[in-house]
């Protein structure tokens, strides 16, 4: 098999690996939710984790999905990177315990964090007001 024939397989494998990585990270959202409540999680990790989990579990996206390209940018790039950062900040033993708790006691439904939705709505209102004031 020539080198050119191997490249599409490698690209497909890389694509599959990236999808698997993103799916695994999104599966850790519930574990991060439990890590927020864990007493051994450091404060700086709780702050980052609260932002990431709040956004991940918010019923409202910062950039709506119907906006071309940008709408999926947060789901494909920003959210997995935020989850990866939160995972790096949480001590390994705490993360392991929270992953085990998430596996053994999964919530019946994925919890919704309405406070994050309120923050996102206020961000949009501030942006709209700033644009209005600038154009006025």
UniProtKB/TrEMBL annotation:
Segments crossing the lipid bilayer: 43-60, 72-92, 113-135
Pfam families linked: DUF1232
Task: Using the UniProt record, give the first listed, main subcellular location.
Answer: membrane
Q: Where in the cell is it found?
A: Endomembrane system
Q: Please report the stretch or stretches of sequence annotated as the DUF1232 domain.
A: 45-81
Q: Which GO terms describe its cellular component?
A: endomembrane system
Give the record's membrane topology.
Answer: Multi-pass membrane protein
> What's the domain of life for this entry?
Bacteria
> What's in the keyword line of the UniProt record?
Membrane, Transmembrane, Transmembrane helix
Q: What is this protein called?
A: DUF1232 domain-containing protein
Please report the organism this UniProt entry assigns to the protein. Answer: Thermosinus carboxydivorans Nor1
Q: What's the source species' lineage?
A: Bacteria, Bacillati, Bacillota, Negativicutes, Selenomonadales
